[in-house]
Amino acid sequence: MAQRIGRTPPPPGPFRPGFWRSPIRGPWLTSVFGLLLLVGIPVLFVTGMLSYAAYNPDLGPLNDQTPDKGLLGFYLFDWPTHPYWLYRLTQGVHVTLGVVLVPVLLAKLWSVIPKLFEWLPVRTVAHGLERLSLLMLVGGVIFEFVTGILNVQLYYVFPGSFYTLHFYGAWVFIAAFVVHVCLRLGRMTRALRSRSLATELRTDLAHTRPEPADPDGLVPIAPAPPTMTRRGAVGVVGAGSVLLLVVTAGQSIGGWLRSTALLAPHNRDPGSGPNGFQINKTAASVGVLPAHVGPNWRLEVHGNGPTLVLTREQLLAMRQHAAVLPIACVEGWSTPDQHWSGLRLADLGAMAGLPDAGSVLVESVQPPGPYSSVVLRGNQIHDPRSLLALRVNGADLSLDHGYPARIIVPANPGVNNTKWVHRLTFRT
């Protein structure tokens, strides 16, 4: 029976050994792209895990609705407020690098596509485990890149929370990635040493030849005449990555590059004036109406003592403090530094009878939904730059920027800088 199965001919199409005929496909080119991913993907994973930690997910379901993190949350720590640009850096690197690596990933998948159609699909238990790890690797990387890019482009089409899906997907993918690297690192090293990069970059089309036959079946058994050199393949991938860098990086780097960030949906012209900088969602889009923040608006401050109920005029009459901070969001975009003024959260905590508050629940007039409330840590409360902001750049907040009051905390993800605040509950 085993012999009959082993002699089963492959079905027509891509399962046939002679179907794949590109003469430049082989272990060396695959290893070049693999080396780039070997460097880039760990950086993506680490910055992604840091992004997750920045939400302070172990403070409760308001910050994180990912159930049963268990051992996967072993690394979580109190997200710092110093330096103030930390989240802007880590998330900017995460999103920009993820986009830039797309051409490399596609080239790597193209280079190994014969392996995905290997026949027989499973020959032994060991071969089956290797195939399973390959399925998890390819499926995981496609899932992570697709969901990440959809989120960056604001296409919320996920069957559930993006954060939950992306978090668990990242762990599944990185586990498969580690297994794959352990299995293939030796072969990749030998393949890279088999040819000189400088020589390949000098080889023209007339002298492009297939690599020697390899045990993995990447080199075609009946290669077609070359239509592109390996130099050309590397160049096309490199040019694609550079182009994506140019049209993406400006949303987090800022400066003159901001005008080239064509793939950044939040990088459109935000208008002029003191409130002329990017926003995530408008007041109307989340159901905040002028009536919710009109003359009857009050700020409630709860803590260890009687509840304080304050009008905006009373808040403005108190001692005001200033901070110069950007807003940075999970989609990778950030604003330039803005000049905020308002009341320190630490001072409000002291007024509530908790000068050493360990956390504060921030609630918005926004109808219940994601990020209509959030919990901030004690270190965030007590940073002197953490404000209940009333004004920005010398003017009152606009409605879309959170009028009459919003949170601004250094190194805090943008969605945790709650807008339209109406209640603060300080806790021990």
From TrEMBL:
The residue ranges of the Oxidoreductase molybdopterin-binding domain are 295-427
Q: Which CDD domains match?
A: SO_family_Moco (cd00321)
Name the InterPro entries on file.
OxRdtase_Mopterin-bd_dom, OxRdtase_Mopterin-bd_sf
Give TM regions.
28-55, 93-113, 134-156, 168-186, 233-257
Its domain of life? Answer: Bacteria
Q: Which UniProt keywords apply?
A: Membrane, Transmembrane, Transmembrane helix
Q: Name one Pfam family in it.
A: Oxidored_molyb
The question of whether Glycoprotein is a record keyword is answered with: no
Q: Does the keyword Amino-acid biosynthesis apply?
A: no
Q: What is this protein called?
A: Molybdopterin-dependent oxidoreductase
Q: Which organism's genome codes for this protein?
A: Streptomyces humicola
